[in-house]
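Researcher: We plan to redesign the surface later, but first we want a full-length starting point. Tokens attached.
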């Protein structure tokens, strides 16, 4: 079996140039990542404490996915960013210096952001497999990354669309119910009025 070309493996090989990362979340330095309409650029948050790996991930996500990428190095910075400007997708290292990547993924889910976790620890990957959580085992290929990212984003969009359709059906049902109730109320009032008039007529002829 032929090995993958070195270019396609997300590994610890450093790049000659460095990439700008978000190290503090000041308003003037924090890009807007709020647009998640279909057709808009994919916006990714990468949470990776190894700067060389982060460099490779940033480059590859920009080139292979056409993504707009923001990278942070700690879980705390990731939580702040998720609260301020939820992206389209989060790619999270599990072994962060200040907290578990699972905590970041949970916060992402609370902000309606799908997340993919990554790690080189087999036991953590086994836990992800048992719970069917989207994950990538390091080192992974660009093809694996792009395929899983596309799948996760598509499923999230489908879930949102399904939820919107459910809300639309619920709203239509509620409006129909209101109309039925209103018609029933008016019918009941008309019937009561007719009965009252008949009773009055009967009394007058007694």
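Model: Full-length starting sequence:
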């Amino acid at each position: 079996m032929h090995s993958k070309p070195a270019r396609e493996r997300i590994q610890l090989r450093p790049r000659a140039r460095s990439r700008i990362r978000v190290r503090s979340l000041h308003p003037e330095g924090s890009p807007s990542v709020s647009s998640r309409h279909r057709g808009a650029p994919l916006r990714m948050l990468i949470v990776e404490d190894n700067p060389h790996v982060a460099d490779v991930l940033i480059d590859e996500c920009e080139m292979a996915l056409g993504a707009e990428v923001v990278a942070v190095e700690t879980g705390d910075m990731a939580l702040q960013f998720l609260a301020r400007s939820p992206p389209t997708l989060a790619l999270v290292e599990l072994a962060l210096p200040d907290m578990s990547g699972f905590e970041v993924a949970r916060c992402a889910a609370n902000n309606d952001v799908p997340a993919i976790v990554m790690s080189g620890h087999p036991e953590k990957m086994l836990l992800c497999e048992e719970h069917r959580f989207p994950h990538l085992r390091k080192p992974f290929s660009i093809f694996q990354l792009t395929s899983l990212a596309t799948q996760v984003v598509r499923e999230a969009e489908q879930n949102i669309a399904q939820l919107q359709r459910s809300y639309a059906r619920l709203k239509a049902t509620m409006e129909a119910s209101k109309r039925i109730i209103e018609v029933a109320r008016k019918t009941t009032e008309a019937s009561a009025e007719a009965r009252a008039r008949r009773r009055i007529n009967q009394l007058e002829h007694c």
